[in-house]
Amino acid sequence: MHIVRVSMHIIGVSMHIIRASMHIVGVSMHIVGVSMHIIRVSMHIVRVIMHIIRVSMHIVGVTMHIVGVTMHIVGVKM
């Protein structure tokens, strides 16, 4: 009878350990998922920033060109 009680206890403890490890695995998976999501979002933000920089550069280039043309026209008028 004592042996049965001990084995039941061992089974209960092992079940508990298994449940705990499953929980840990689940949490780890969740953390990995969140990290992946954060990385993906960061990549997207970087891409957007790069795009904004490229557009700004383009706008600066166009503005410089307009200024150059205006200066040229003014120079011709003078």
In this structure, how is the largest beta sheet organized?
none
Distance, first to last CA:
114 Å
Question: What's the β-strand tally?
Answer: 0
Class inferred from helices and paired strands = mainly alpha
What form results from the Cα inertia axes?
rod-shaped
Give average pLDDT, whole number. 95
**Radius of gyration from the CA trace?**
33 Å
Tally of helical segments: 1
pLDDT < 50 stretches: none
* Strand composition percent: under 5%
Keywords: Membrane, Transmembrane, Transmembrane helix
What does this protein look like?
- By secondary structure, this protein is mainly α.
- Helix content is 97%, strand content 0%.
- The termini are far apart.
- The mean pLDDT is 95.
- Keywords: Membrane, Transmembrane, Transmembrane helix.
Task: Give a summary of the structure in a few sentences.
The protein is an all-alpha fold and 78 residues long. It is built from one helix and no strands. The chain crosses the membrane at residues 20-39, 51-74.
Can you lay out the helices and strands and say which pair or pack?
Elements: H1 2-77
What are its keywords?
transmembrane, single chain, 78 residues, membrane, transmembrane helix, mainly alpha
